[in-house]
TrEMBL record:
This is Pseudouridine synthase. It comes from the Bacteria. It comes from Limosilactobacillus caviae. InterPro entries: PsdUridine_s_RsuA/RluB/E/F_cat, PsdUridine_synth_cat_dom_sf, PsdUridine_synth_RsuA/RluA, PsdUridine_synth_RsuA/RluB/E/F, PsdUridine_synth_RsuA/RluB_CS, RsuA_PseudoU_synthase, S4_RNA-bd, S4_RNA-bd_sf. The gene is rluB. Residues 2-60 form the RNA-binding S4 domain. Belongs to the pseudouridine synthase RsuA family. It holds the Pfam family S4. Its EC number is 5.4.99.-. Keywords: Isomerase. The keyword Isomerase applies.
Length: 237
């Protein structure tokens, strides 16, 4: 069971706050009865009618995508560029879905897409500290004290980043590049790139390899799969 305004918002009727206004105005009926109480709970089999029109309640779906380079992490793009949702819909999957968080246009790796707004909001909320692990190829040979700075936090846009995990994977002394693994649980814009920039090692390539308990095992760039029931439960926990 869930609150009526939440069910309306997830069905795309309006935002949760706007849905509350519709309820208070007497424009919403549940199983044929006008409802004006915001605490009303509804189940999956209850019929909800808004302004005389039954709403279509979607089943929640969850997809894991290995995002390729040159694709926008959005449901739509005003410039007509290919989006991560386009990749899913190419396989005749019609549910209204959107990505949980974003990866930059040139960043590759793991991305979750769903129509479960409640779960998406929790996964993106800082207080739940969902870990995300990235592999970054950066300019220069990174030093131990710079890795320590990343672990302790650096100042980005006037705010210190939360403690992270950093690990040197490899260095190419001929090309003067380093391969570094970085695990964070924040979600600021361009955070990983900005963190490396602060310590003097601009990112050349960036790949996200894990998201919480999920990984990309068996998925090539551009491929996706539905989450298994046990994976969905792990995310919800």
């Amino acid at each position: 069971m869930e609150r009526l305004q939440k069910a309306m918002a997830e069905a795309g009727v309006a935002s949760r706050r706007a849905s509350e206004k519709l309820i208070l105005q007497g424009k919403v009926a549940v199983n044929g009865t006008i409802v004006k109480e915001l605490g009303t709970k509804v189940g999956t089999h209850d019929e909800i009618v808004v302004n005389g029109v039954p709403i279509q309640r979607e089943q929640h779906v969850y997809y894991l995508l290995n995002k390729p380079r040159g694709v926008i992490s959005s449901a739509h793009d005003d410039k007509g560029r290919r989006t991560v949702v386009d990749i899913i819909h190419d396989e005749d999957i019609d549910e209204r879905i959107y990505p949980v968080g974003r990866l930059d246009y040139d960043t590759t790796g793991i991305l979750l897409l769903t129509n479960d707004g409640a779960l998406a909001n929790k996964l993106m909320h800082p207080k739940y500290e969902v870990e995300k692990t990235y592999i970054a190829k950066v300019e220069g040979i990174i030093k131990n004290d710079e890795l320590k700075q990343l672990r302790l936090g650096v100042i980005v846009d006037g705010r210190k980043t939360k403690p992270a995990k950093s690990k040197l994977i490899n260095v190419d002394r001929a090309k003067k590049t380093s391969l570094v693994q970085l695990t964070i649980h924040e979600g600021r814009n361009h955070q990983v790139k900005n963190m490396f920039k602060v310590v003097g090692h601009p990112v050349i390539k960036l790949h996200r390899e894990t998201y919480g308990p999920l990984n990309l095992y068996g998925l090539q760039p551009g491929e996706f799969r539905a989450l298994k029931p046990e994976e969905i439960q792990m995310l919800k926990k």
